[in-house]
Amino acid sequence: MATTSSSRTAHFNRPEILREGRNTVTAIDSPPLPMRDPSDPRPDLAPAIKVEHVTKRYGHATVVDDLSFTVQPGRVTGFLGPNGAGKSTTMKILLGLASADQGRALIGTHLYRDLPDPARTVGVVIEADAFHPGRSGRNHLRIVADAGGFPAERVDEMLEMVGIADAADRRVGAYSLGMRQRLGLAAALLGDPPMLVLDEPGNGLDPQGIRTLRDLLRARAADGNTVFVSSHLLGEVQHLADDVVVIDKGRLVASGSIRDLEQTATLVRTASPEILRAVLESAGGIAQPQDQDALIVRGLPIEEIGERAFAAGLVVRELSQHGGSLEELFLDWTSATPSHAGTIEEEIETR
Amino acid sequence: MKWSCLVRAELRKLTSTRMPWAFVIVLVIISALTATAVIAGTDMDGSKGFIATAADQQSLMAFAWNAMMGAVIFGAIAVAREYGHGTVVPTFLSAPRRYRAVLAQQTAVSVVGSLLGGLGAALTVAAVAVALPMTDYSFMLSIETTAQLIAASAFTGAVGAIMGAGIGAVVRNTGGAVTGAFLILIVGPPLVVQMANGAASWVPGTLAGVLSGIGSEVGSLAAIAALAIWAAFPAAIGLISTMRRDVA
What we know:
The complex is a heterodimer.
Chain A: H1 5-12, H2 16-28, E1 49-58, E2 61-71, E3 76-80, H3 87-94, E4 102-107, H4 118-121, E5 122-125, H5 137-148, H6 153-162, H7 177-189, E6 195-199, H8 207-222, E7 226-230, H9 234-240, E8 243-248, E9 251-257, H10 258-261, E10 265-270, H11 273-282, E11 286-289, E12 294-298, H12 302-311, E13 316-322, H13 326-335, H14 344-349
Parallel strand pairs in A: 3-7, 3-8, 5-6, 6-7
Antiparallel strand pairs in A: 1-2, 1-4, 8-9, 10-12, 10-13, 11-12
Helix pairs in contact in A: 5-6, 6-7
Chain B: H1 3-15, H2 19-40, H3 54-61, H4 64-85, H5 88-94, H6 98-131, H7 143-171, H8 174-195, H9 204-212, H10 220-244
Helix pairs in contact in B: 1-6, 2-6, 4-6, 4-7, 4-8, 6-7, 6-10, 7-8, 7-10, 9-10
């Protein structure tokens, strides 16, 4: 990855040869992946990724459970969940590396395996360590370029772009985790695809590398590309992503724009927080104690919270909308998964 | 994606690590041992009858069965470690209908297996040719027979590599794949012979001998067809299992 701002800027200028190539492929061969209108910050476009009621079981364990969500083009979408939540499995199903027991996951309007030219349509980082340790970084990229039918010049360009050109002829086994992540990112970008699906791409990167990765992904989204990235680095996702999809135990717990999500909680102050908590949770809300006399409530509209408190005969001293950091929200969602998880759009609609 | 691109990628995979060179070193060692045996070895009666006639020399230099065994191990390791290192993932992302990737992989390992088999035979012939002047005997094989030995080894090398690729795709673990390869080539054929009278003519070792011109149990074309069937069986199982299974 580049270490100077000037080189970063230069790196974002994608080669014309592949831009033309991609456009040609998109126009003739590939399914139509919607592109963002730069004048409209949130256009009403068809989803670039659509996951529909996907369920995946390994033996008796349900790893992904009736999961549905969409990812919009021109946005960076963070895919969040605790370890073992089913993020990687969902991505593998999306990419045709694993089969769903039920449901389907679409790229545009196609299953991944039905894409006419998948390597030019989706750039992927799915396994941080999927390299032969005895092979050089350059040869790894040459293999990916051969398989994808990309020009050989792209290999050197990508090595330069991700900042490992000096180590290109060293064996990957001698690379640090951060260098392997950069190599994986270079492979994902070889075909200059309009969509990136990245599983924990920031693992092992130093702060400079994370900053460059963030700038790169933001720039690609700004160009109308789709970026779908899983991460457990919540602070990084908060800086990087426009939208998030949060899953826990294979189920959706929240999805929507970070800005909206951070404004969807309600602060309630009452003399009887435990009683009110029981009342609200019985109504399907998630209530987390805040102070001695306060609760942070999600999943119920503010009016309903007031009405239920009144019906229970509880005195409410404060009832107001409450913002929270992504980390607070994430911990709330994943420590108390509601029985009827819904999207933030549903939650907002109830307000 | 063009299938030729996938084959090129698979060939680059095979040639961008040290594994083929390790096999070349083994071939050099085997040929050196053969030369040493020619110079210093004798039969039980103390004579050098094993190199006394053209037929004896042809039998000594028949490398096809060795080529097949070596190529099975080569193919098994080449494919199994693809899964072990996860490098099969980018291939399947480029060719999500995996049969194309698997066929490209089998094609590539068969090419390299064929080259290794042919090289092994050529090195053996060369070693014997160099060693024979140090004995009382001369090199007696015709060019046609020498070419037959090399061609037979190249063919069985290709067949063995495809068999190994199939085993590697099923087992997906390098140690297990090598073990499976030995079981199929060393343990399997005797069992087949025990179960079916007359099957001895159709086991890989016998068929390799036929192609090398040191056996006549079946015709050459029949031997080629039978070896192709031996290769097709594990290759088909490998293809089917690859198509059906998730990539871990």
